[in-house]
Amino acid sequence: MHYRTNKLVIYLDLLFSSMVKEVCMRCGKGRESIYEIKCSKCGGPFEIPIDFEFDKYNGKDFPYNEKNFPYIKHFISLGEGRTPMIKRGKILFKLDFLNPSGSYKDRGAVTLVSYLMEKGIRRISEDSSGNAGSAIAAYSAAAGIEAYIFVPETAKGGKLKQIESYGAHLIRVKGSREDVAKAAENSGYYYASHVLQPQFRDGIRTLAYEIVRDLDWKIPNYVFLPVSAGTLLLGVYKGFKHLLDSGVISEMPKIVAVQTEQVMPLCAKFKNISYMPPDKVTSIADALVSTRPFLLDYMQKAISECVVVNDNEILEAWKELAKMGLLVEYSSATVFAAYKKFSVDNGVLVLTGSGLKVL
Ligand SMILES: [Zn+2]
């Protein structure tokens, strides 16, 4: 009987461990169902622990394959990832704005939407008036999922047209950015938040894989990233960490976070200076809007440097990039503006969003 009980306990443990693929970043509790958006115990965000070795196999399905993403059997692919990296002088530019919907967010949309399809979810909500909304709308269209994208009432511009063009429903919400998020969360549709759903952040680790692969499996000294809610930063950090843990690289590259004068909560925390968010973000870098990012504590641990740029510097950098043939959105030009103030050798600048979205 005793033996049987033990066997049962072992069996249940095994069953549970095979089910628990996501854990709270704060308290370590396992995620009990896909409907637990934040940890029910402590309110923390969930993440997907990487407990397998990175596989250097560089076939045509790299980097989105079942070896790198064992929790996805079938990818709803639009040809994301594998974006070019080019060299101009001493700078390496990773052209991630060449993803299918015109931003790096496709790297997370493909994993989140593919995962939700496998879980039988067919209607989702998301709050974003920008690239995340566009990416989720595009992959939902590809999957046959009905997407409801919640945006601030005041939002306007090409990205909204892009979201609607994919057939997603655009829902305008009065109030603050937090009010928009609440409306999406309480909509009755499955809340496919690009900030909270770990499958979204997890998809972005492919960007780190590609940077290292493009450098013959070596790291650059520095990687410059624009930082808002932290999905790009934490995703890329996780990718490098995975390569380090797997012995592919022997140290982490230094990550330089770039923020705007108006939206600089991470730089303020990192440099221990005071920061008062504005009532309204009016910077031309309109994709960088997270004045109080939920993931801030984790973001601070991932960076080596934080650089703040202003609108004039961004505009100058944007013009220079365009004259090099690189038409990106203002929020993406921030990394070049930062590089000009914090010049380094062997740096990769990730250009995240297409300039065609903001013309
Ligand atoms: Zn927790």
From TrEMBL:
Any coiled-coil regions, as ranges: none
GO biological process terms, semicolon-separated: isoleucine biosynthetic process; L-serine catabolic process; L-threonine catabolic process
Cited Pfam families: PALP
Domain Tryptophan synthase beta chain-like PALP intervals: 76-353
InterPro entries the UniProt entry points to: Ser/Thr_Dehydratase, Ser/Thr_deHydtase_PyrdxlP-BS, TrpB-like_PALP, TrpB-like_PALP_sf
PANTHER family: L-THREONINE DEHYDRATASE CATABOLIC TDCB (PTHR48078:SF6), THREONINE DEHYDRATASE, MITOCHONDRIAL-RELATED (PTHR48078)
Protein name: Pyridoxal-5'-phosphate-dependent protein beta subunit
The species this protein was found in: Saccharolobus solfataricus (strain 98/2)
